[in-house]
Structures are given as structure tokens and as C-alpha cells.
Amino acid sequence: MYLVHVFLRPPEGADVPEAVGEAVRRLARPEEGIEHVVDRLSAPAGPVLGVYVLAGDLHQAEARAALVCGRALEEIPAFRGWTLDGAGVPLVAAFCEWV
User: Fold this and answer.
1) pLDDT per residue over 38-62, tens digit each?
2) Which phi-psi region, left, alpha or beta, contains residue 6 (left: φ > 0; alpha: ψ -120 to 50)?
3) CB proximity list for 22: less than 8 A, separation 6 or greater
4) Beta pairing, strands 83-88 & 2-9
5) Nearest partner of 7 among 91, 73, 77, judged by Cα
6) Which of 78, 93, 12 is nearest to 49 (CA)?
7) Quick check: helix, strand or coil at residue 44?
8) Which candidate, 95, 78, 82, places its Cα nearest to that of 22?
């Protein structure tokens, strides 16, 4: 399982939706492997969705998370005008120091 961070950009002056993680997860198809979505739309570094994905490799996980979140931006009214700014698995500092 991979945790993919999907970075979002709201339109100017947009309200930040509340508790949309479950709504995003419900848009996933079974074959996409989305297990859980955590929304951190008021994060200091900017809006982000944490998407837990079952996938064969890192690139597949990132692509699936971006696909489902892109679908959410199109289908969830609270996301009208928002854009997807990228998706990636965050580096874990402890692992990087160990290698």
C-alpha cells in the first residue's frame, strides 16, 4: 500500500470544503485500489488529499490517486474550479537517513 499526496489548488476566494475524503473515496472504482482518503485542505503548505492506494508499484499508485482525485474535482460540487497540482509519494526522512 502506498500513501500518495495529491496537491490541489483552489480558485481565488474559494471556500475550503469540509470532510470530503470519504466522498472522494466513494468515487473510486474497485480496480483502482483506493482504500482510504484523508483530506487536509487547510494544511499550512496548501490543500492536499492523502490517498492510500493498493498498487503494484509507485508509479501505478500515483497515477491511480491522481485519476480518482481528478474525477473528484469534476464531480464533487464543492471542488468546482479547483485544479490538481500534482501527485506523489512523500519521502520519509528516517528512511532517507538510513540508506
Assistant:
1) 999 888 888 999 999 999 999 999 9
2) beta
3) 37
4) antiparallel
5) 73
6) 78
7) coil
8) 78
